[in-house]
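Listing S7. Sequence submitted for prediction.
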Amino acid sequence: MLTKAEKTKQVILETASLLYYEKGISGVSIDDVLEATKLTNGCIYGHFSEKEDL
């Protein structure tokens, strides 16, 4: 069973993966991931220290 934090991280990764597939890594910003996941900056950066970690 995944914790809430693990589920959130999984959602971020899955969403970012789809965006990266559609637009390419350089074509996706953190703001794009934020918009698609409806999460906050703090939430994203709580799981990943920078875009490259994502």
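Caption to Listing S7: primary sequence and predicted structure tokens for the chain studied. The first helix runs from residue 4 to 23. The chain has one domain: 4-53.
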